[in-house]
Amino acid sequence: MRKVADCREFPSETNCTLTISGEEDEVVRAASEHAVSVHGHSDSPELRDQVRSTLKDEGPQGG
Asked: Disordered: where is this region (predicted)?
């Protein structure tokens, strides 16, 4: 089952609308890199765990 990370579900100063979908490990990696580079978070195992805990299953038409 593909997973989805959606920035719209979290408040941000930039009102980010990025959605990332794919296999779970791919999405965790990409969403964590995005959180660091765009939102100023520190890359850590805790960040990746937090990202993983917010993933949702992708719907039948992607998201």
From this structure: 31-63
